[in-house]
Every structure is written in structure tokens, then in C-alpha cells.
Amino acid sequence: HNLAHELIEEFMLAANQFVALNLHERGIPCIHRIHESPNPERLANFNEFIASFGLKVPSPVRSTDFQALLKKIQGRPEERVVNTLLLRTMKKARYSESDPGHFCLGFPHYAHFTSPIRRYPDLLLHRILKKYLKRTCPPKEKKVLLSKIAEISEQSTQMEIQAMAIEREVIDLRRAQFMMDKIGKTFHGIITGVTGFGFFVGLEEVFVEGLVKISSIMDDYYLFIEPEHRLIGQKRHRCFRIGDPVKVRVSGVDMGRKQIDLVVLGQV
Question: Is 263 within 8 Å of 212 (Cβ atoms)?
Fold first, then answer.
């Protein structure tokens, strides 16, 4: 990824933004790519977590506030964990006939226009633009078109979610297959997620994530502190928190569940 790629990305963003703005100004219905601002409760939980690093984002928050935060933590030990939790705090982008804007990009009007050969919303937008390029959209026609766009937006969003789920499933399967001959080997990794049943570790040497079950940590009884994304031992107070570096051993691979089981050997 270099400056040439970034230049092409800027062209794409500019084209998408201009088409959405043009249709908005002319009062013509458009299938928008929207991204709403974070849920206040999730934002409060995020702020509660990053406060331990001396960080905070205001509420209501703007996309520029998140950009400033990411720039501030660049190169710091907590960069990875804050990045991970920030992504989980954000809402998912979706298609819609309404136009609340794109929070992440900071655009008041945005649509997908540049890839009609692989995305149906882009193709639909090309058709709308072609039809109304030199004429207006009468009220009755506008009502019918808005109804169609609402239906197509919902279906396109659901198909996108389904496609991403299938992609994740295939990736998980291939990762499990890749790790079959690595049972018993040790790796360094970073805790990427903490739950009541254990924690997930992203292995540094290979692009793979595995699970350390809480039942496999025998030195103490661990409690899950959800707001702080950590497990803490009742007696020894040993703590496992999202973002912590750990050393693990691959204890097994469950092909049916596409799951890689790990045993924690120590904290780095």
C-alpha cells in the first residue's frame, strides 16, 4: 500500500461523495452508504476502558476525535488494544434510502458508485443517475423509487453480512487446517478478546487466532471483569487483559468447530 494506492482511494471517495451530493441537491432518491455515530453506551464503555491509559474522547464524538486519538497512541504499547476496541465500538456501515451521512469518513452525503461490476447498489446508482441525469424526478415517481431503494438497501445489507460471514467461516477453516501440524508448538501472541469462558489470542508468527479456555488455567479461580475486558484471579490477582502479550502452546485443533485451542504458558 503506497501513495499511488492512496491517490486512487481519494479519487474513489471523491466520486462517491460527489454523486451522492449531486442527487441530494437535485432532490432525487439515492441508495446511500451510511455509517451512524457510535451508540452512547458503547462510547461510555470505551471511554471507561481507555481512561486507564489517560485517554478520552468527547461525547458527542466526531470522526476527527477518533482520528486524533489514533494519532496520539501511534507507536505506544496500547495502540493495538485501543484500535481493536475502537472498531468494536463503531456501528457497521449499511445501505439506506435515508441520508444521515457517513460518520467514519466525515461526509454528510455518501454512496457507493465506483464498483458497478461487483456491487449491486453501485449498479442501481448508475441506473438512477443515467435516468435522471437530464431531468427531474416527479413526486409520484420519487415515492415509488424511494420504496424500491428501501427494499434493495435492506437486501443488499443482508447479503453483505451473509457474504462476510461465509468469508470468515472459510478463513477459520483454512486456519484450522494450517495449524493441524503445529499442535504442541509454542507461539507468542496478543490477547485480542476476553470473555467469561476464556480469552482469544492472535499469534504473532502466523495470522491465526486461538482460544485459551478459562478451564485450562489451573493456578487460580478467574473472574471476568467485562467493562475492563480482563480476567483476574481471586487469590493471586493474576490478570489477563485485552492487549496483553502472552506465550501459548497449541493444545489441539477442532476441525468441526474450526477452533484452535491454546494453553497459556506465561505472560511476556
Answer: yes
pLDDT at 84: 86
Phi then psi dihedrals of residue 151, to 5 deg: -65, -45
The yes-or-no verdict on residue 178 having pLDDT over 80 is: yes
pLDDT in tens, 13-28: 999 999 999 999 999 9
Domain boundaries, the chain: 3-174, 183-267
Return the pLDDT at 265.
94
Spatial separation of the C-alpha atoms in residues 252 and 263, rounded to whole Å: 9
Contact present, 201 and 248 (Cβ < 8 Å): yes
Half-sphere exposure of 116 (CA within 13 A, CB side): 9
Q: Are 20 and 13 in contact (CB under 8 A)?
A: no
Integer Cα distance of 113 and 66 in angstroms? 26
CATH number listed for the domain at residues 183-267: 2.40.50.140
pLDDT at 78 over 90: no
Distance CA 22, CA 43 (A): 33
Please state, in angstroms and as integers, the Cα–Cα distance from residue 22 to each residue in 28, 29, 114, 125, following that order: 9, 11, 15, 12
Q: What pLDDT sits at residue 23? A: 97
Neighbours of 166 (CB within 10 A): 10
In whole angstroms, what is the distance from residue 242 CA to residue 248 CA?
15
| Helix/strand/coil for 165 | helix
User: How far apart (Å, rounded) are the C-alpha atoms in residues 248 and 265?
Assistant: 5
Distance in angstroms (rounded) separating the CA atoms of residues 267 and 38: 33
Confidence (pLDDT) at 238? 92
